[in-house]
Design goal:
This protein is of the alpha+beta class. About 25% of the residues lie in helices and about 30% in strands. Strands 4, 5, 6, 7 and 8 form a 5-stranded antiparallel sheet that branches. Strands 1-3-2 form a 3-stranded antiparallel sheet, with helices on one face. The longest helix has 14 residues, at about 5-15. The two termini are about 25 Å apart.
Length: about 130
């Protein structure tokens, strides 16, 4: 696998389209960080890290609105790819849907959202957009 983050986002996207309640994804530290941000921002219902083998798994419970059965995540877009990395300074950090969505940024202080990086005046690699 050449791009594990794209695989992570694709597994989430496929589970949402198939209306699954839980999706299981192979774990890594960056995937764990993205999962924690998704939970903190209310895009997923819950998550669990399982360390049953060398790599481990992440179980993610997807969040659906009870009235219209739509998922909380509308779109997942990978921005920085292995072939073309996308970096942004603190002054040029992207705004997703004019602040309604989030951009996940990999900074020298760890993974964080675009709003947090803007408040700390640090830039970094733009990993993905979530709305």
């Amino acid at each position: 696998m050449t791009d594990p983050i794209s695989d992570y986002l694709t597994r989430l996207r496929n589970a949402i389209r198939a209306n699954h309640r839980v999706v299981e994804i192979p774990a890594s530290n960056i995937k764990k960080g993205i999962t924690k941000i998704l939970f903190e921002k209310g895009y997923i219902l819950n998550y669990k890290f399982e360390e049953n083998n060398l790599q481990g798994n992440i179980k993610i419970a997807l969040k659906y609105h009870p009235a219209n059965k739509q998922n909380a995540i509308r779109s997942l877009t990978r921005v920085s790819k292995p072939g073309l990395r996308q970096y942004s300074g603190h002054a040029n950090l992207p705004r997703v849907m004019n602040g309604l969505g989030i951009a996940i940024i990999s900074t020298s202080q760890g993974l964080m959202t675009d709003k947090e990086a803007r408040n700390l005046n640090i830039g970094g690699e733009v990993i993905c957009y979530i709305s």
